[in-house]
């Protein structure tokens, strides 16, 4: 080794690296409870501050990115996602110092800064800097330490002629020429492929025999060839204290070669790298030496959501591989002490910079720097009736999915466990071109809607199923949604569609119209009226349009939004805007700009100021709106519109949600008084048959409320107004309640069929208590038979015996239709008495008097006429003594139908009460000598008191009513009509014919016409109505 000359070296102890201000910005982290999902941060303790919950959508599928560059004896250099600078982390303390980003060379904890005439080297552990001037004609190879800089000579246009090591000591630099005979001749390029503090491996190129590798030893100045016996030198090199490792950095390469560092001329030892099991191809490997082990990292599968591949170690001398980490990146950095740094772990919540050492028989992995999980990005936001929905790449998948959180209804809106709504992937229409965002619309019923990139608008119902509205064109945009309905503009044809998610997708476009501003709330579609400045509402169920109202806009509204009593209108982004108060009949002026309407308030995003602003107008018309700051929300670059993406309003629940820069979701209560809870849309059965197959054999009801309830009650009442069943619950989906009724009362017994009314009350949980929000009626069939209902449809029938012995049950509708069931083979001399349920099976029975005077009970079937072969029971004999046999219903108040008879010889009237065994008790006299009545008719409960009544027609054709008292007696008669029914040859109390829960009367005149007298439920009847013209061929009708 010869001294060629000296130059100066500036050794400076720099403090700038540690004196820079620390940056507190970091990748957002996720707090995880013990298996309970995201933990919301506590709301502010100030009771005057609206309650707020802050939480992430989840953990991003990719871990926090961290790139390793070099490691010294006391720390390592790296960069981290979200930080635009280099970081130096100390091994012992874990302390991290930021460095300004720069282009530099690195080696074992040192950073080199090459220039045309100098090389500056900084010790990253202590900030010490050494600047070495380069002699003329020298070029930097890229290899260096704090005291050495390896350079080379190359004349212009020539080949490399020599290597020089510049050694710095005590302020002087010694230029040491390395042995020229060890350097191959004729090479034109040189680069450093591996280095440590002891030396460097150089790759020579552009020479006569391909690429060559040489190892430079700083201590001895020796330059020796590497892997010369191989057909081609390895493209990748790793160094350890005593070995040089080479391999080829290409896919499928699974061999490595090792030579002693002290004897590079030795024959390389081949080491087989075990293939990756189950892989369709073998990825590129990265190798490093840790003692007697080769550490193996592999390139990540770009098509997989996994954060990396398995990290293994192979003995240098051969043998079985060891698994070190479940996942790791393919970066391996050898530290000055011979350990290897790697980034990896068991998954995104167990991710860290880790160190592999080989101090014993087995390699050992220890933690160096934990890398906290990153909050998943939120690319769409919907909030409806206390349910938050987000589009995010949370947990386990790099593909976007829809997730939902149920929020606490009171106090701070803390989130419940996150649920997968639907794997969205890329099947959605971005909110704008070139973006990943998706606009979400809350329906208020626990579901959301979004437009896909095809021709559909979708609403996930389970993680594997969608309700879809299929439209004629692609490129659709949702304008508004509420409950079952969604309003969509096609964007190309000037058409607007209203879809119904609850209908079959083949015909669920319920309205097609020209595109205008529009909003849907419940069943009402709000739209501009026929005159400028007006709006009207089209009912999607009744198909009727209301009268237009002038909201004072002075323009054709460009945007409409509706929440209950409030209708927001806007003349454009910079135009006039207001909220029409449907109760106060006047508009309230509000600020212009992109906004979302809530119940009594409006929220706008002031993007320039980075604020969400809330305008409170809950006082209604005549009260000025008040606007104030609600929350900080800086605008996201690149988004033209960010509502329903970065922020949204719960128009059903009164909260506001937004996403901050760290992808934390904020849900904040709005302290504005709410409107009373109402039902804005209901779908209920008006007819229910308990004999149908499941699930149609129960009554169904679904109500979309304006607010989510904390409790509700549904009460059913019979025709007499008595409550028979109350169903109470707290279950709801958003602001939607759905329940069923099986036709049983509170004791579990089947109720009589027929008309029942229902009423729904809801408690919104604000202290106002339960409030009736909806009511209706159902015709119940297939239940316990209503009085004189034999076919189970809930309405009464006229029973007739033909002259040929066929028994027919005739059910009439109000349009003259007749539903008929029949049975043949009856004796034409029999007398039939339609009855209620005697045997307790829920079906109406028939009493039949034979020609001998025997009385039998024929059990009904709840589905048609009684049969001659059907079950029957003898009720006694001697009934030929009576000229009247009729059932008024329950006279005795025991809930069972009774029999009233008149004895022919005396005209006395008797009562046979039904017993619990399905028989008749001994008779009890009701009245004596009813000789003046030519017709006595059991009519059921005419006046709604729950007891059966009798109608009688006297010989002067006056119609009277005898009310039952519930104790087996009749009250004083009440006159109903005079000069009534002189031409009627049949008068029958046939039960409830009109399905309104009231007992009606059927008569036949001498022209064989059947007339209906509709009962009013108070003991009287309306005017008669012709039901059928020409009913004949019957021997008896009753």
TrEMBL record:
Coiled-coil annotated spans: none
SUPFAM superfamilies, per the entry: DPP6 N-terminal domain-like (SSF82171), Integrin alpha N-terminal domain (SSF69318)
Highest taxon of the source? Bacteria
Which Pfam families does the UniProt entry name for this protein? FG-GAP_3, FlgD_ig
Q: Which residues form the FlgD/Vpr Ig-like domain?
A: 702-763
Q: Which UniProt keywords apply?
A: Signal
Known InterPro entries for this protein? FG-GAP, FlgD/Vpr_Ig-like, Integrin_alpha_N
PANTHER family found in the cross-reference section: PROPROTEIN CONVERTASE P
- Return the protein name: Repeat domain-containing protein
